Amino acid sequence: MTLHELIQSLKTDGGKIVMLVSDGIGGLPMAPGGPTELEAAKTPNLDALATQGVLGMSTPILPGITPGSGPGHLGLFGYDPLEFQIGRGVLEAAGIAFPVGPNDVCIRCNFCTVDENGLITDRRAGRIPTEESSEVVKLLRAVKIPGVEIFVEPVKEHRFVVVFRGEGLGGNVADTDPQKTGLAPLDPVAKDEASKKTAEVAKEFYRQAREILKGQPKANCLTMRGFANKPSLPSYKELYGLNAAAIAVYPMYKGLASLVGMDLVGSPKSLEEEVEVLKENWDKYDFFFVHFKYTDSRGEDGDFDAKVKMIEELDKVVPAIAALKPACLVVTGDHSTPAKMASHSFHPVPTMIVSDLARTDSCNAYNETEASRGGLGHFQAIHIMPMAMAHAGRLEKFGA
Question: What's CA 251's distance to the chain center, in Å?
Fold first, then answer.
């Protein structure tokens, strides 16, 4: 019996669950003996919850493995990221409600800035504002490749989606982002025979796009990431018996939530607006995924102090969420993004469960040091959903 089969056999009605995900929340000290971002932040509300709940450290995939955002969130949702693999391109396309079809390959693209030698000077084109990047995206719709239908859609800031539609297109193509400045974008290389046509189409798309973009002041080039076909996933309703809602600002996270059958509710532009959407929809759903992006992006920028401030912003909305009295409140992240590394990392993520059914531990703050000694211990992220279900009274006894 698989974990999913077990959950399906035990699921029952119960209380409401809120999963508050602070993207990239885990961190590291900037110097030995110093605090992590969470430990440096003033978080009275999260710390108060820590005294009422139980803490632990979750491993997004496996020890030592650094997750992308897609696998990280799949694990939180209870899907083994090694079994259910979703490319970033599909997540971005689903997040903007693009109707992904069976003959589509979706690609998450970034505008970038290159110098006169074609070397990347800024991987995100200065985080070009969405209103500017949307106009540049329209220019790329002039790209034409025989035998393939091409869709180019804006997402947010420097991000956009390209979809190739046609027969014989596989999604197993290597990213073209070298992940460092001072290097040129890489060639799209097929990783299997079925994806060779896609790689050739991507090369031609890049060639034409490069000509179109060469006069742009910021977005004068692009990188291509997360080539992917549409996956097949059991829905939250099928798996957990939950009417689930997703509340997020960034499209990619909406996309993943929609792929597992969550309803996308509201159009929030800030964390405060997300909480208002949560309140407005409280009586309509059993499960709420609430996503906060900026702890991750500030960590990726390598800005320790800015990440601390974002954690403190998160802390401010916690009382409004707790006041709704969910049967189970989960506070966690999809991965760690230490400012020290300016990237995602393999480090476990501090995770907290607050519930009347929680066996409280001696932790008195929500951070890495406290969570590492918490009552939940160290566990894989795919077990968060079963624990949330249990703490919300939604799992029956197994066996006689």
Answer: 10
The C-alpha atoms of residue 398 and residue 9 are separated, in whole angstroms, by 9
Distance CA 213, CA 379 (A): 47
Q: Specify whether the backbone of 7 is left (phi greater than 0), alpha (psi in -120 to 50) or beta.
A: alpha
C-beta atoms surrounding 62 within 10 Å: 11
Place of tokens 């803490």: 55
Q: Which of 250, 336, 201, 256 is nearest to 88 (CA)?
A: 256
| Amino acid letter, residue 335 | H
Q: What single-letter amino acid sits at 39?
A: E
Residue-wise pLDDT for 241-266, tens only, equals 999 999 999 888 988 898 899 999 99
Question: Which residue type is seen at 15?
Answer: G
Distance from C-alpha of 177 to C-alpha of 172, rounded to nearest angstrom: 15
pLDDT at 86: 82
pLDDT in the model for residue 293: 95
pLDDT value, residue 307:
98
**pTM of the model as a whole:** 0.80
